[in-house]
Design a protein that fits this description.
Strand content: over 45%
Order of helices and strands: EEEEEEEEHEEHEEEE
Largest sheet: 12 strands, antiparallel
Distance between the termini: 64 Å
Number of strands: 14
Helix content: under 10%
């Protein structure tokens, strides 16, 4: 029989946080200076999801066709006021900033799966398309103490649009031959990572800020094959060993791609790298399973090696704040 179902999900939330930091700086055992930093932050989050599912059950043996279409939208609005002042040996305002960060994410998911059981065997095939767009609107206003007005920091104010589109088709086949069973599969995957930056900052100044080799507007495409092999040998009715292999992909998220610096304090800046490529890995696992009447033992050894991996690093910028603290 066939069926069509639909679903709707909606969520809203609001967070309010206050973070206070008190920092003492010493020369030998004497306090040289003391600073106080307060951040008041609010975040409004609204998201909803609409989904439709089609299911066609050909028989009671597991012969099945399913298809799904899903759209989701998530909107996050963050507003923060960051005040930092020196409280010893004087009482002076160091910085007062208003930070606005808005992120809108739209995502489409389209997929279909077909399952065909056979005697001691099973065949599966399908495809999946995941289209994701994230728009980050970041603005930083700093107080000009000389004039008393807030001034837009153009170096940190920008709109970054990031698209990650992934299309995949797969097929897998499994069979059992006596005490030996196997499941093999192959996935063909096409990935597009695309970024676009809107800013009022001068291009020459941007190269000085971000580096001359940073590509603000990029469109990268990758085509890859990802095999999977799982083997099981039954030593007895209640005991078996298994061996598995799979190739995997790890894509950088938009936060790691965005080249524009954003900061949570005067001395800590986060900056993404638009040159990041996906990382690929080969994973192996060897398992053993033994069942008794009231106890089951499962054990495994797992090994994975990733190439082209990326991680977060922390390093000095070579720049200091006006009061001499390293950024």
């Amino acid at each position: 029989g066939s069926s069509i179902t639909g679903g709707f999900f909606w969520r809203t939330s609001r967070d309010e946080d206050i973070t206070e930091n008190l920092t003492d700086r010493f020369v030998e055992e004497e306090v040289e200076s003391r600073t106080f930093r307060e951040q008041e932050e609010t975040e409004d989050d609204n998201s909803y999801q609409v989904s439709f599912n089609y299911r066609n059950k050909f028989d009671d043996e597991g012969h099945l066709l399913t298809a799904d279409v899903q759209y989701s939208r998530d909107s996050e609005d963050q507003e923060a006021v960051i005040e930092e002042r020196i409280t010893f040996p004087t009482d002076d305002l160091l910085a007062l900033e208003n930070v606005s960060a808005k992120e809108d994410q739209n995502e489409w998911l389209i997929q279909a799966d077909y399952v065909r059981p056979m005697e001691d065997a099973q065949f599966e095939a399908g495809f999946r398309s995941n289209l994701e767009e994230t728009i980050t609107d970041y603005r930083l206003d700093s107080l000009d103490q000389a004039s008393g007005d807030f001034v837009v920091n153009k170096a940190l104010t920008n709109i970054f649009t990031y698209n990650e589109n992934v299309h995949a088709a797969y097929a897998q086949y499994g069979n059992k031959l006596g005490k030996f069973s196997f499941l093999t599969g192959l996935r063909l995957e096409y990935t597009q990572l695309k970024g676009d930056v809107e800013t009022e900052y001068d291009l020459e100044d941007l190269e000085e800020l971000l580096g001359p080799d940073v590509d603000l507007n990029f469109d990268k495409r990758y085509l890859g094959l990802f095999p999977t092999v799982n083997l099981i040998y039954e030593l007895s009715e209640n005991e078996n060993v298994s061996l598995g292999y799979s190739r995997r992909i790890n894509r950088p998220r938009g936060w790691f791609i965005n080249p524009f610096p954003s900061r949570s304090s005067r001395t800590n800046i986060f900056q993404g790298n638009p040159d990041l490529d996906p990382a690929f890995s080969n994973a192996f696992d060897l398992g053993y399973l033994k069942r008794w009447r009231t106890l089951t033992l499962t054990s495994s050894v797992y090994y994975q090696r990733e190439t082209g991996s990326f991680e977060r690093v922390q390093e000095p910028t070579g720049i200091t704040t006006p009061d001499g603290i390293e950024i």
